[in-house]
Design a protein that fits this description.
alpha/beta, Double Stranded RNA Binding Domain, Arc Repressor Mutant, subunit A, 4-stranded mixed beta sheet, two-stranded parallel ribbon, 6 helices, 8 strands, globular
Length: 186
């Protein structure tokens, strides 16, 4: 297995429970397998969504940030959008993209733990809970994975069931399977 490029993401965690500073500007592009939407707050990229259509992606963004003004801004976000698509499609890390990460204190701890899982490897929800010192919090770990708004940047696709089976992924189980397969080929 070849090593994956160094992460291009700078993980900036908000104060737990802190709200995103809007407006959120967004842009959409086609990647090899699907459409990709990025949303950028005043602090950095706060959303990376995968989907079949631009409307479905916009619907995800509206649902995730219902009280924040959303503004299309394809031109201003062209560089970051290109970086994210290149990372998704070709595993190319071009420069650094600042992320703006919200969530509860527990969600943030889960997401930080997920960022420590090397590409091509997986952990079970139970192993992540154990690593965090709360072995009884398996369902809460799964809930944190489901609440992740930053596809691929926070690698919740690397978390599997205790028997190794691929389950639950906000952007579809088949996409999770593809991401893991691609990482193992690298």
């Amino acid at each position: 297995m070849k090593s994956r490029p160094a992460s291009m993401f700078k993980y900036n965690f908000r104060v737990p429970g802190g709200q995103v500073e809007g407006p959120i500007r967004y842009a959409v592009a086609r990647a090899v397998r699907e459409m990709v939407l990025i949303g950028k707050s005043q602090k950095g990229i706060c959303a990376i969504f995968l989907g079949e259509s631009e409307q479905a992606l916009l619907d995800q963004l509206k649902a995730e940030f219902p009280s924040v003004e959303l503004m299309p801004d394809q031109r201003a976000l062209l560089r970051e959008l290109g970086q994210v698509v290149a990372f998704i499609d070709k595993d190319i890390a071009e420069g650094v993209v600042d992320l703006d990460i919200g969530g509860t204190p527990f969600q943030q701890e889960v997401w930080k733990a997920l960022c420590g899982i090397p590409a091509g490897q997986t952990r079970s929800y139970g192993e992540v809970a154990q690593h965090l010192g709360v072995p009884e919090a398996v369902r809460a770990v799964a809930g944190a994975c489901a609440a992740n708004t930053l596809a691929v940047a926070i690698p919740c696709h690397r978390v599997v069931r205790s028997d190794g089976a691929i389950s639950g992924y906000r952007w579809g189980i088949e996409r999770k399977r593809e991401l893991l397969a691609e990482e193992c080929e690298q």
